[in-house]
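Lay summary

Proteins are chains of building blocks that fold into shapes. Our project writes down both the chain and a compact code for its shape. Here are two examples, one after the other.
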Amino acid sequence: MASAYPHLLSPLDLGFTQLRNRVLMGSMHTGLEEEKHGFDKLAAFYEARAKGGVGLIVTGGISPNFRGRVQPFGSELSRPWHVAKHRKITEAVHRHDTKICLQILHTGRYAYHPFSIAPSKIKAPISPFTPKAMSERKIRTTIRHFARCAKLAKKAGYDGVEVMGSEGYLINQFLCPRTNKRTDQWGGSFANRSRFALEIMKAVRAEVGSDFIIIYRLSMLDLVPDGHEYAEVIELAKGIEAAGATLINSGIGWHEARVPTIVTSVPRGAFSWITAKVREEISIPVVAVNRINTPEIGEQILAKGEADMVSMARPLLADANFVAKAEAHQSDRINTCIACNQACLDHVFENKRASCLVNPQACYETELVMRPAQQQKKIAVVGAGPAGLAFSCYAAERGHEVHLFESNSQIGGQFNYAKQIPGKEEFHETLRFFTHRLADTGVKLHLNTRQNAESLIAENFDEVVLATGVLPREITIEGIDSDKVISYLDVLRDHKNVGAKVALIGAGGIGFDVAEYLTTKESPTLNAEEWSAIWGIDKDYEDRGALTQPKPETTPREVWLLQRKTSKVGKGLGKTSGWVHRATLKKKGVHMIPGVTYQRITDEGLWIEVDGKEQLLAVDTIVTCAGQLPLRELQQELESAGQSVHLIGGADVAAELDAKRAIRQGAELAAAI
């Protein structure tokens, strides 16, 4: 059978070695790098992706020295005794036909510790520490440390290294006027600003010889003021090629950029155009990155000649067998990354171990293991939301007889509301995955079937799992029974009419989602050109950083997003995506007001008090988004009858709709039951 993805799955000849396909697993820090026995777990993590068919893996960033560490106890490769633990990874990966490179990452002013250094003494907005400006001697020493790190990586069995020159880290800081104010030979002209990058590349190549992969991560779009000019990007790309690079990987945006680059609202393959432009100027292979999460998108980019490889990091967290499924013509079985960041990047920035919302086994390959059940049980699961779906599939995979009951006509629970939010279209993919997974694992699905305690007891189930979800919390305000008042379910489930002026009571995740839903005519996530214009990305690259004036957005409604808390509206949203949600609503003129006391609802609208002053919001519609309560009405009656009952998901804890916790909880119960 001919390959459905002939470009994606074709080998790539690098001269001295060959890659089995065009899929590169991009660098992602997991937190295992710093855990006790973490390298044993890392070895299992990377081996699963190698076994799943990835052509080339790049590890999470490893510092070449102490000052370059991400955090005080961050991982580094700088001494001979560091080699042994890295060899565990390379040996595990090399059991399969996959190559692996170590990413050498010096954070510079992004370091989250007081020993940071940078080309100039300029504090980063994302770190509380001000770096020390590097002396000439420190620059030379750091170049040697990059080369030393590469030499140790080769000794550890890596097939190559990736030199991290983008995302606003140390090398990138030297390259741009934004962070390089030096007046010596390392600053000023671009020839001077690029000297650091080129000297590192030359030193690394000299240390490792010719038969070793060197990837350079080139910042093609800085997306910050005073970043690269396009001509500088091309000049550097040619210099890096001449210095001995094997591949050039794309870098998109600094971490401090106010343009989203990887969250779920970014269109798929939104940045392949810049990789294509750079590829025309050099002769070594280039790699496209960011929001490439299906084999179809990867194939399209390669077929159009925009890149020679495609990089995916989070999609390979979501499904270790991504490539193998594409090879087997089973792409509809891929557990697609929804780019939520909730369990991966958000965890890493909170010094937790990374995982994946849709795949809780990611980075837990040695701990959350689905072994065949010693005793097969007959299990009832009530509720086919994320928790119920996850539990059912994992339990059936282990050999249990699972009956999944859902009162509605479709699976998905709250995901059916989330998938309607502009920018969250990826949630459709999770429901597609579970639809196939239920069938493949043999779960007996009963739709349009409402269960009660009597019917469940009559079937003699060994275990009953309640994944019945949540109910909207009722709130008490004078006039709450007004026809003006509806709940978020009335909006997202029942699609009731909403007026031109709307007040949202509650500014958690649901409030933000409803605000986005009500203020968007057409989702820009489905139109990359429109999305780029809205965020001010200049595809003509006429100014430094490729930034231009953002296109104003029009909105069909005026919306007030209200919360009782006095903290910043949206403070509880994800660390890496919350700012995008706030910025998006701000662009649409949404009024975000904290510290609100709700007084009463009248025919005129909603009366509130803020800072001791009463005011009227003359709105047509008031939508309640003020939290949820667990729906667990069956529990007491079942337990009274002696039935073994388990609560998971919203039925257990009805905090902000938390699919990450729900799916993990379902998986953990399935592994133990």
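And here is the second example, written the same way.
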Amino acid sequence: MSLPPGFLDELRTRLSLSQVVGRKVMWDPRKSNQGKGDMWAPCPFHHEKTASFHVDDQKGFYYCFGCHAKGDAISFVKETENVSFIEAVEILAREAGMPMPARDPKAQEKQDRRSQLADVMEQAAQFFRLQLKTGAGGAARDYLIRRGLDAQALDRWEIGFAPDGWQGLWDHLRGKNVAEDLILGAGLAKPSNKGKKPYDTFRNRIMYPIRDPRGRCIAFGGRAMDPNDNAKYLNSPETELFDKGRSLFNHGPARQAAGKGQPLIVAEGYMDVIALAEAGFGASVAPLGTAITEHQLQLLWRVSDEPIIALDGDTAGLRAAMRAVDLALPLLEAGKSLRFALMPEGKDPDDLLRAEGPAAVKSVLEGAIPMVKLLWQRETEGKVFDSPERKAALDKSLRDKIKLIRDPSIRTHYGQEIKDLRWQLFRPQRQPQNRQWQPRGKWQPPKQPATPGARSSFLASSETADIQMREAAILAIAILNPTVVVQFEHQLEEMECHDPDHAALRAAILRHAIDDPEHLKDHIFETLGGEILENLLALRHVAVIPCVFKPGDVEKAEMTLAEELAKIKALRGLDAEIAEAAEELSDLADEALTYRLAQAAEERNRTSRSQNEDRAVFDIADNGARINRDEKDAFQAIMSGINFERKRR
């Protein structure tokens, strides 16, 4: 509809913005100056305790310094009443006593019909409420009482009953001279295909009126009293008034409660919403018999930045939560998301309230998890990732989901969160240090602890020398050549870093090198500071590595990383043998143990046999000591630290 020039200016002139806004807020008397039209209040658009919402009556504009909402009287009514621009103008024009300009005849006709349909729906609601109080509604009343609803609650929610007859409502409305086409158009009756008069849509059902945010009855939801009925719940068909994908049960009251700071809860059905609201959770809504739609999601976000999806604790509830995740991912914006509160298994919110009370529900709501955690749970719960192929399948599935997010900033944060969760799932688990090896064959006396010489031997402490130095080299190469990290991600994840600085650097590399290799060093500076990186690169054995002092040679970096990771793996193998051997040592030992140690040392010897470069890298200047000394000497060192006695035969 086009409005004549000057109409809106005249409307704004006649209205006081502070009066329009004052219906929805409580002014702060300490900050407000009514004489100057300078008014302050807590914002009606987001939850806050301070008065950061400012209304300038003279200019006719409002602005929130918290959520940055701004506009005039028309935009305020649009947002708070959830109406269209023209509907907001109509509301304000009625307040100002201004007649609306003549509309297009077809538009006016359509609006008039919608008003007539809303009137018919209101008459139907009153009919159903009266029927609940009759003898025919006795079973329905008993059911509602068992569900914990007293007479006052029934009146508050305007719950009614559709009697078990074919034309009960039809005859009632026709008796009030309601036109047949209006009864049919409101979805209250259906035409007969047998040439008879139309029959009621709802029969023998408890009736829940569905109202739009302005309070108009636009539809009904009916619960069957007959357990054999094909449809336990039945909604009104879609009409000129009702689009179930764009409507929410209890929308208007929930919006008001959310504006006062209550969390917005999305439950599954009418009784869940009623039970929650009666227990003090007034900002509760429900979709109408379908999964949450995109339009409903937008309605929810207009009420709250993070609605809580509270679903039944069963398989169907979890499936509904997952559908909501898939729907919301492409629509996410900064500050707009969902949280999920899953009820205990086998219970819905109403069940939990009746069994354990509001405190139990509050606890579940406070423990609501963000979307990213539920997404991770869906892709990992009940699955085993014991092979590279299964891990790769998980990575692909998660990447495909994250790609759905349109906002690049949110997509980046989701990727980081998933990477952190993945690291927690796949991080290497250290083997317990008190393993008990049970030899085959004859019974042996209990083992005694290893001798101090064995525990302090050179090879048993190599993890704090050779391995840490090679870890430092690997980290430096990865940081200065981050494009190669993607090939070694799994090996880096499995690399144990007992040095806290090494562990922090390794985590930063895995977190940022693959997604943003160009700014890896910047991320490290931001999160860990510059000192940790400077200390790493200043190490003498690190500084002389070719791909460290002259980064950029990708092929050389790949070769060096592969070499060093292989050496660490071999050194770990030797340490594992020594650790196990130390636990098995006692006053008695045999040649088999000696043979195992010799084999492990020889394997290390083969792996660590490097060129002159490797020896230069791992030289240490202190006292002229050389960490990477000849392996034969190393083996003799451990052997000299243990008192071996040949086993008695």
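What can we say about the second shape? The chain has four domains: 7-96, 105-242, 247-426, 452-640.
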